[in-house]
Specification:
Helix content is 43%, strand content 23%. It is an alpha/beta fold and 376 residues long. The strands form four sheets. It has a nine-stranded mixed β-sheet with strand order 9-10-8-7-6-5-4-1-11, with helices on both faces. Helix 6 runs parallel beside helix 8. The longest helix has 22 residues. The two termini are 29 Å apart. It binds S-adenosylmethionine and iron/sulfur cluster. The site of iron/sulfur cluster has 11 residues, from loops.
Amino acid sequence: MLGLYIHIPFCVSKCKYCDFNSYKLDLDEKRKYLNALQKEMELYKEEIRGKYIDTIFIGGGTPSILTQDEIKFLFDNIKNNFEIKKDAEITIECNPGTLTINKLKVMKECGVNRLSIGLQAVQNEHLEYIGRIHTYEEFEKNYIQAKEIGFENINIDLMYALPNQKKEDWIESLEKIVKLDPSHISAYSLILEENTELFNMYQRNEFKLLDEDTDIEMYEHTINYLKSHGYNQYEISNYAKLGFECQHNILYWKCENYVGLGASASGYLNGTRYNNLCELDKYEEIIHSGKKPIEWEEKLSIKDKIEESIFLGLRMNEGIKFKDFQEKFNFDFEKEYKNEINRLEKMKLIDINKYRMKLTQKGREISNSVFVEFIK
Ligand SMILES: C[S@@+](CC[C@H](N)C(=O)[O-])C[C@H]1O[C@@H](n2cnc3c(N)ncnc32)[C@H](O)[C@@H]1O
Ligand code: SF4
């Protein structure tokens, strides 16, 4: 399996909670950036020749900030440089407030078959507080347009544990979104990241964070409510109708190869993980000198690969199969982790049988503490 991730690091303005690598839109910068991306694709062309791409994810930032011509330019370049499987999953992240019917049409013509729309909440006062540029109504209009144009596979991003968000608000968000019948829902608990406006507001005591018990109650409600409406949780924060699980993310969690292009993008190719430079000037300068814009790279040892396969694999509800560890790494999982398994099983954090191990619901609620048990 091979994936392709392309990062578009521009947004209309910065949401208060967000620490993704994104910059306020500058038209000149955007043009220079797309030219650099074109060159970066050419730098990978030979390395990837002969391999087919199974999944493409254009993420951000706000990829839907690109104009129709820019979207075409991006996909023409992808097609000129890489070979894409006929049935590849091709996703583009979209923000209400930047989407138009014509952009949606161009995306469809370019082969995009999955949209991921960031909404976060259905109440306009919450959207405003966290710095979103759109209202719920704008989102709904875009969603209906996308459906009319023929997009059948649409994800909606939501967030809970937002400042001042009551449990009833979250319940309302879920109910309203389920009525729209998307194929996929991502529901993230707010992470208060340092270096964000929200973090500063929190330090100034402008709002209180939700207590842990309510956060867990909201999480449990999400899982049960979505399950009763046909959405299966297949990863800690992701829910899908059968057959609509995000293939690109599954590829990450299964430690498959993917090329990451664009400022701050990461990739994993032939046993090496890498991260691109974040700053646009530096990223572009290196590319124009004919080199890959890699800031950091590391060839993974067998130990690294085993540990990554565990903590990424355990994110998925299906968990990890012992056979895979034996075949890939000649590693007897149950023997090597006997003590950890016993301890976690007693605490009811994992569910294990002869073939596989997965997190229990309780384990999923504190997944990070389970993962560290497997890092030696
Ligand atoms: C890569 S982001 C960008 C998506 C798109 N630009 C948007 O905002 O609509 C994907 C999703 O991550 C989630 N996210 C971003 N920052 C987060 C945070 N600090 N805590 C929890 N979830 C976050 C949001 O749901 C967001 O839609
Ligand atoms: S639009 Fe998305 S990427 Fe941009 S600042 Fe907001 S959450 Fe971050």
